[in-house]
Structures are given as structure tokens and as C-alpha cells.
Amino acid sequence: MIESNSQYQALARKYRPQCFEDVVGQEHVINTLINSIEQNRIHHAYLLTGTRGIGKTTIARIIAKCLECENGISAHPHMDGSEKCSNCISIQNGVFPDVIEIDGASQTKVDDTRALLENTQYPPMQGRFKIYIIDEVHMLSNSSFNALLKTLEEPPAYVKFILATTDPHKIPTTVLSRCLKFQLKALTIEQIAYQIDNICKKEGIALENEASYLLARAAKGSMRDALSLCDQALALGNGNITKDTVLSMLSTAGDSFVVQILELLKTNSQTDLATVLDNIRAISPNYKNLLDDLVTAFHDLALYQMMGNRNSLRIYSLDNAILDNYAKSFTAEAVQLYYQICLAGIEECKNAPDQSTAFEMAVLRLLAFSAQKKKIG
């Protein structure tokens, strides 16, 4: 069990990567950055894009450490051992004066941007460079982008920009053209589960194998979300993470309900609708999430019918055994129809009296459009 500690630090913060070697699943970006830094080919502006929680701001801080390390510009800044670098530690703690982090979502006004750019004329106080990390840069106004453009095009030699965004399409092409762009990938379920396992071993946390997979799947590609869910599961499980705890926390029953509904739709099914709905109501799940799971299931079935077992590509969320069983039970046309029905059910969750109504109507619609009349009990 995890030890009690009044200074407990959230797992997502405690295990935030502090060097390139710690970053999970972004080898295509990390290798390029390491090579460019080692060869001293340092661009004046970088743009990191990708979904939330996959390491954009983390990589931006690591780049800053690489450029500001007391031991020289290096892709492997000194953070551990006897030679601790005070610059790197200050950047890690967010107190280094020449690394300025800005939240684009809260500083959208052009006056904010102009005040920021006025400071670029002053050289760095302590480091080699003055580094501006602008998170959610797509939130800046058009006027702010126009103000930023000239400085971004010809900044002083000691100024570097590292921009991060979840929505690069909202950034003007004139800004994009002046940056080195790196697209970060959403992490796979296997990568996240492996990292959860490693962290739990380091922390001495009892973890059931299936629980890490469930947490990784619920994180939807985000390592930060996965570790936040781990903290939540630890609190609920009194220091342990079990499958039942995670299922209870996520208000679901894993793939079991998805399988039961797929059974309902099979030709000559003996599954009873009333029993399935009663089983679902018994745990009061998040019905919208359950519809999300059904959409994912029909998406996977459609792919599996077309492509078969492709484990090496990691393109399926459901277990291959489930997909192999039910891909043979439905026509491709039926799977497409079921997918659309579940999508409509998700949309109806916004307007229905409650989510359970929208979910049950979606299930009834699935049955109404299935090939066989089902037993309703």
C-alpha cells in the first residue's frame, strides 16, 4: 500500500518527464529534437501539437533545460547525480527568470502580447536565451497573432519561442510557416498501461493487471489523464488499485455490457432484453460513456470485418476474441447502421430527460433495425 504522506504529490506531477529519455511514445519527435540540439541546429521557433496530456508542455520545458543548462547546450541536461544543474532545477520548478511560460487561453488580448514582445529587446538575465513557452497558442486573437508575427519572423538571436496547441488549424498560416512543427501522437493503450505498471511498482502500489488496462483505455491517449485516474482509484481503493475499484469509479462494467448488447442483436439471440437493462440499471453507469463504448465497438467491428486481426497496428480497442466472434454475426451494412444509431443516441443524451432514457431508446432502435425480432421478456 502507498505510504501516508502529508506532502503527497499527484502522480502526474511526480512522474512528469524531466529529460527526453523519460518521455513515453514520442520517439519520432524526441529523436529529431535530440539530433538538432546535439548538432547545435537550434531553430528560433518550435510548434508542438497534439491532444491533451501527451507531453507538449513537458517537452517544451525539456527543450528549455537543454538550451539553458549550466554545463552547456546539450540534449541530455544535468538533472541527477552529484552534478545538479541549478538552471535545470529552476526551470523544473518554474522559477527560472529567462523561461517565461504564458497561457494563451488567458492572455488573448493584443495588449498582453505587445507587453510580452516589448521584453524581447532585453537580453536574458541569467541564461543563454530568453525562452517563451506559449501554451494553447491557438487561443490568441488575430490582433495578437499579428503583433507576434514580426518578432516571430526575426527575433533577437537570444530569443526562442516554443508554442504548444491542441488545435493547430486555428493558427494563421503566416505563423505556422515560421515554426518547426512537431505533431505528437496520442499514446496507445499498451504504452499507457505499461507506464502505469512501472509507476505502481516504484510506488509500492498493489495493482491488478486488468485494472491498468481499464485505466489506460479510459484515458483515451492521455498519460496525464491516466495518472489522474490512478490517483482517483487509489483514493477509492484505500491505496490499492483493483479491477472492481476502477470499474466502480468509471461507472461501467468493462466490455461485459457491450458484449451483452451485441448478443441481443445476433440472429436467433436467446438473450433477454429486460435482463440486460436490469443488469445495467443495477450499477447506474454513465450511460453516455456506455454509448461511447458501443460506438467504439461498432467502429472496431467494421474495421475488423475489412482488415481482420491486425494486432501489430494497434488499431482496435476491443479484445480480438470479441471482435472475431461478433464480426461474423453481422453484415457490414448492419454494423454501419448500428454505429449511426449509437452516435444519434449520444447526441440525444443532451436533450433527453436523463441519459438512461437516451441510452435505452438507442438500444430499442438497434433492436428495431436488426434483422430478427428479439425476445423482450
From TrEMBL:
<dbReference type="InterPro" id="IPR003593">
    <property type="entry name" value="AAA+_ATPase"/>
</dbReference>
<dbReference type="InterPro" id="IPR050238">
    <property type="entry name" value="DNA_Rep/Repair_Clamp_Loader"/>
</dbReference>
<keyword id="KW-0862">Zinc</keyword>
<keyword id="KW-0547">Nucleotide-binding</keyword>
<comment type="function">
    <text>DNA polymerase III is a complex, multichain enzyme responsible for most of the replicative synthesis in bacteria. This DNA polymerase also exhibits 3' to 5' exonuclease activity.</text>
</comment>
<keyword id="KW-0235">DNA replication</keyword>
<comment type="subunit">
    <text>DNA polymerase III contains a core (composed of alpha, epsilon and theta chains) that associates with a tau subunit. This core dimerizes to form the POLIII' complex. PolIII' associates with the gamma complex (composed of gamma, delta, delta', psi and chi chains) and with the beta chain to form the complete DNA polymerase III complex.</text>
</comment>
<dbReference type="InterPro" id="IPR008921">
    <property type="entry name" value="DNA_pol3_clamp-load_cplx_C"/>
</dbReference>
<dbReference type="InterPro" id="IPR027417">
    <property type="entry name" value="P-loop_NTPase"/>
</dbReference>
<dbReference type="InterPro" id="IPR022754">
    <property type="entry name" value="DNA_pol_III_gamma-3"/>
</dbReference>
<comment type="similarity">
    <text>Belongs to the DnaX/STICHEL family.</text>
</comment>
<dbReference type="GO" id="GO:0003887">
    <property type="term" value="F:DNA-directed DNA polymerase activity"/>
</dbReference>
<feature type="domain" description="AAA+ ATPase">
    <location>
        <begin position="42"/>
        <end position="190"/>
    </location>
</feature>
<dbReference type="Pfam" id="PF13177">
    <property type="entry name" value="DNA_pol3_delta2"/>
</dbReference>
<keyword id="KW-0067">ATP-binding</keyword>
<keyword id="KW-0808">Transferase</keyword>
<dbReference type="Pfam" id="PF12169">
    <property type="entry name" value="DNA_pol3_gamma3"/>
</dbReference>
<protein>
    <recommendedName>
        <fullName>DNA polymerase III subunit gamma/tau</fullName>
        <ecNumber>2.7.7.7</ecNumber>
    </recommendedName>
</protein>
<dbReference type="Pfam" id="PF22608">
    <property type="entry name" value="DNAX_ATPase_lid"/>
</dbReference>
<keyword id="KW-0548">Nucleotidyltransferase</keyword>
<keyword id="KW-0239">DNA-directed DNA polymerase</keyword>
<keyword id="KW-0479">Metal-binding</keyword>
<dbReference type="InterPro" id="IPR012763">
    <property type="entry name" value="DNA_pol_III_sug/sutau_N"/>
</dbReference>
<dbReference type="InterPro" id="IPR045085">
    <property type="entry name" value="HLD_clamp_pol_III_gamma_tau"/>
</dbReference>
